[in-house]
Amino acid sequence: MKIRCPDCKEAAFLSDDFSIVKCDNCGFDKTYGEYVKYVAYKDPRYSDILSDYK
């Protein structure tokens, strides 16, 4: 599945089992949980979801 890379805004790949998010364009590579935290800290609109990933 493709999702938006939080760093370069290009298409990143989300594995079928939702375990890894990887962007071939900029090298972004994190687990899905790390990705959610990264996006939430980077964009204040998503800060309310941080409590779900402690």
Topology:
Elements: E1 2-4, E2 11-14, E3 20-22, E4 29-31, H1 32-42
Antiparallel strand pairs: 1-2, 2-3, 3-4
Question: What does the model show?
Answer:
There is one protein chain. The chain is α+β, with helices and mostly antiparallel strands and 54 residues long. It has one domain. It is built from one helix and four strands, in the order E-E-E-E-H. A four-stranded antiparallel beta sheet has the order 1-2-3-4. The chain is globular.
| Uncertain stretches of 5 or more adjacent residues | none
Question: Could you estimate the helical fraction of the residues in percent?
Answer: 10-25%
Number of domains: 1
N-to-C CA distance = 25 Å
Number of strands: 4
Keywords for this entry:
24% strand, 1 helix, 20% helix, alpha+beta, 4-stranded antiparallel beta sheet
Concise overview:
With 54 residues, the protein is α+β, with helices and mostly antiparallel strands. The chain is built from one helix and four strands.
